[in-house]
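Render this sequence as a predicted structure.
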Amino acid sequence: MADLASALPPGRVTVQEEALQAHAGDKWHAAALPEAVVRVESAEEAAEVLRFAHCRRIPVTTRGSGVGYVGGCVPVCGGIVLSTMAMNRICEINKADGVAVVEPGVITGDLQDEVRRQGLFYPPDPASLRECSIGGNIATNAGGPRCLKYGVTRHYVLGLEVVLAGGRILRAGGRCHKNKTGFDLLGMFVGSEGLLGVVTQATLRLLPHPPARAMVSAGWRGMDEAAAAVQAILGAGHLPSALEIADRFTLEAAREHLGANLAPEGRAHLLVEMDGHAENVCREAQWVSEMLAGLGALQVEEALTEEACERIWGLRREFSYGLKATGLVKLNEDVVVPRSRLVDLAHFAEKLQEESGFPVACFGHAGDGNLHVNIMVPETESAEARRKIDAVLDRLFCQVLAWGGTLSGEHGIGLAKKRWFAAALPEAARQVHVELKRALDPRGILNPGKFVSV
């Protein structure tokens, strides 16, 4: 790596053990040491790294903040980890154009805070928004609770600067909110998990920030009633900005973690958020509250101020931490099913728990069918544990696919779901993936060992 170090500014390349360990994995259980970590601060530096690696067939795994759940940035083939976290500038916020131009290392929550100060809104809101980066969000097409009304990261990417495997710098899209010129190159890179190029800048669509929001929190006797309420809300013509559900195990863990009187009542929980102008939002919150009470909710609470809404969201954000506090390892499977299958998925999760002996906790985005099925296991290291876990995941993923669902709604495939990728797509679609990979990365240096190889 000495030749590469000499071609870049001082300090960009490190082979120190501590840095290699820090860049060996993400929040999934697998890890692998790279040979070097290269920290780039511009597209030109990234291009220099990729030219070097392409000529020598050295693997390059791009890494953002490293908080993914599927091993997407694990450098399984060694080589170089290309860190974009030093590229963390918000280059421009233009209210007239409704755009932000940012580098990939910008933390999502920081961008949201900055645009809000100017009366603007960047809706994608993954649970890790205070630690995940825009580059990682683009790589996985990250979502979050607001997907129901506002969509996912893909819907907010207007332009990209991408460094290709051989070092070419591609600029696709721009700052126009509508653009039908040529192929949809943006859609090809958003969600590509670092297999097709390295994003070095993004132009993102911004919206006017909603003047007000309100929330309704409701406790239920079980998931059947809560899921039925989801359909009732949407069937009545409401389009909440978020519609979240949680099951009994999740609630019990939250009560243990936070205290019994702080977590919602019941064996299932439904959270509904509305946004817009204050008068309309308050009226809609009242309608939804009355509807849920009429459907048999055990407890209905309205939050009509920013502070009250944040308190309820604070509880929702604690669900994951409550599960971690059980002392079990949380395998977070972000499957998606058609919304009509929510109850079926909840029942199937209970069946998996009975069959495997592993507790299963379900919570997530009921409005778009993206329910996080968390398999809670004592450990993942032994061969016997991995065998049992894979058997449970086989059952889960096969059933989800049989219902017309998908393996991932927002975390991606990475290493964790690589084994099931072939079953998730028809042969022609898989072949097109390979052909695209071969065209853009003919030597297969970008994030090798993941779900598409050449």
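Summary. The radius of gyration is 22 Å. Residues 15 and 36 are 5 Å apart (CA to CA).
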